[in-house]
Fold:
Amino acid sequence: MARPLCHNVQMTDLASLPRRIAARAVGHALAFVARFITAVRADWRGIEPVAKQRVYYANHVSNGDMPMIWTVLPGHMRRQTRPVAAADYWLKTRARAFIGPEVFNCVLIDRRPEVDDKPLDKILAALDEGASLIIFPEGNRNMTDAPLLPFKSGLYNMGVARPHVDLVPTWIANLNEIMPKGEIIPLPLICTVTFGAPVHVHEGEDKDTFLQRAADALKALSPDANRDATPTEPAPEPAP
Amino acid sequence: MTPMTPETTTDVAILGLAVVGLLILFTLIGEALRLRCPPDQSDPVVEAFNMRVHTWWGLAILLALAVLAGRIGIIALFAFASFAALREFLTFARKRRADHLSLALACFVILPLQYLFVALDWTALFTVFIPVYAFLLLPIISALRGDATNFMGRVAETQWGLMICVFCISHVPALLTYDMPDGSDRSILLIVFFAMVVQLGDLAEYYAGRRFGRRRIAASLSPKTLEGMATGVLAAALIGATLSWVTPFGLVGAAAMAAMASLVGMCGTLVFAAIKRDKGVKDWSHLIPGQGGLLDQLDSVIFAAPIFYHVTQLVWG
Structure:
């Protein structure tokens, strides 16, 4: 798969080699920290961990969400997966400008109202290059007690424009307790990233129906949705 | 750290070889059971056993590396075990935003300090630091944030997590600070003795309980039976007597200590079964392949460690 950032292969490859090595090293370091704090684990409930083109759409409660998904993806999937993120956040400082575009290989979206930037065009261009994407369809971090905020229309538009791409619901559990907004020190708690069965836009399905269906598929993966099924028999004890 | 005396090194090596021999035996049994299955299917019980044997190899190698690294290696290994255990416990504990700072302090300040006190052999501080200082400090920090919702439950579960995951586990490496009556440096062997009798007692209890267990001791909580536990404690006592040469306890004393550690450990597993049931979880996490979380693996060791430590100090100190 071609690396989307490098077009002129020989020249840029050589010149940017140290930067790319640094980006890989920083990526591994971030993944190590994420694993140390949260022992983050993937639950492949609805899909297999294979390199298929997908859009992972996830709940968003913390800035740590995207690195968690990125950490649990196996290396070959990680390299072809690009998070869709806000340019104003990732270009704010030099460190972020390195981590966002180069370590995570983000597709950056300019959210400023005065800029006539078509986010969907950039997203579709990335999909056409063969990349998988990570998106947060709620648009903003969810600070409410509701499990999800209403989805923005981007997910629907992607599903209509590129119907062959799997839209995979991805639930990130516990991150609102690991790193709530405004706290500096992350708490060490177990984080699980659950991948559900992919959804597609049905023929003739309208936007609201689809977005509701996609949100329900995502909510169904949360531990709270699965907690009612408490066993009545004592659990078989694990052997020592 | 002073290097081990040749006698101690020899004994560590003999124990290590015995563990390797036992693991090879288990591996062969597992493979033999696998061969008895028809080639086109597999027995889940056999596969689970083989998976566990794999994990035991991993744990044994980890402990061996820690023993080779000496005192610091053992303390670092158990400090990490405490961290991983606390991570699992707090995931399911009651907490609110107001507890963020006190929980962060518990994980990143109180836990390292406790192991520092063990490393420095400050026994007076190590035994009261969490039950007194952390016990009083953390509720203050939570209260300062002014959120009273379920306050009692929150601070109680935090303190319980610290006691179980940090205070109790730290008593395993604390055995290193025990002064052997003959003045030798063999206290490191006590850790191996303790780990072996508790783990093998659990193993005997599990398989004996499955084979001929009848009377359940807490039917709604756990499949543990009276027969299984009696077999487990007896097996632990026998193993303890066999290994009495590494301890200062003498033959009868070693058997009694092993039986006691094993019994307390099984009761610990029972208590953890009640907690898991209360929280509606089957396993604490998926850290150890085939065995759930670290707490699922260590629950017996956690309960037995402080008792083993204190009786050792009390009777042979």
In short: Chain B has one domain: 6-316.
